[in-house]
Structure prediction request, 280 residues.
Amino acid sequence: MTAADPVVVKVGGARAVDPEGVLADVAAVRDDGTDVVVVHGGSTAVDDTLERMEMEPEYVETPSGVVGRFTDAETMDVFTMAMAGRVNTDLVVGLRAEGVDAVGLSGVDGGLFEGPRKSAVRVLEDGRKKIRRGDHSGRIESVDGDLLETLLDGGYTPVASPPMLADEGVAVNTDADRAAAAVAAELGARLVSLTDVAGVYRDPDDPATVIDRVETPAEYEALTEAAEGFMSRKVMAAEEALASGAESVTVADANADEPVRSALAGDGTHVLPGALGGKE
Prediction:
């Protein structure tokens, strides 16, 4: 990887993730001459805002076992308020305090993230497959790489997040891990996905079993079998990123010393394009 190749840093929205060290390290990577795009989630901020408004967050499980937020119309309003009005602004302020010319973007700005809305989703309830309607979510099919590259060429660091712009002209929720994957694929970048654990563990309860490198289809199959809960979404996002042009994907600890640089240097779980075999 050359200094000219950008790095996409995904900052997790879990309560246990402290972004302060990440922001300082993004500044250090920028100072070293590498362009960075930050993509963030905000699940905790959304849940906290829902709680203050006396609304109950709802999570559903897909038939494949992936757990995600069900976003009805009211939740979508709160989601937009929390992501753009709180999390994105806080990260931009933090980066600017580190001397980084950060620019906050939601996925609707300039049509950064676009794709179809999924108004109905398949869920698993009490062991039975059901259809839930009224969801405001979608899957990104296009990223405006020209917009990101224009900002990077101007010396700015984009800080992007859901929502995305659906093909019917409305803002809808989308998964931040998959958004980061789409950005990394569009830019041909290296994706560093920072979360509250040190990588993907063979034994989910034992940090000593972190899987450090995934280069073959057999190793990738073992990775998918080991990933549980929220980590299964990150592995899914890694596959999407690599299949569409990302250089590599690393899942690493956001709370580590120098979290971005240590991940680039070898810490965490590294997934390489060869792991997909014939899936590219």
Notes: The first strand starts at residue 7 and ends at 11. The first helix runs from residue 19 to 31. Residues 7-51+75-113+143-279 form a domain with the Carbamate kinase fold (CATH 3.40.1160.10). The chain has one domain: 7-51+75-113+143-279.
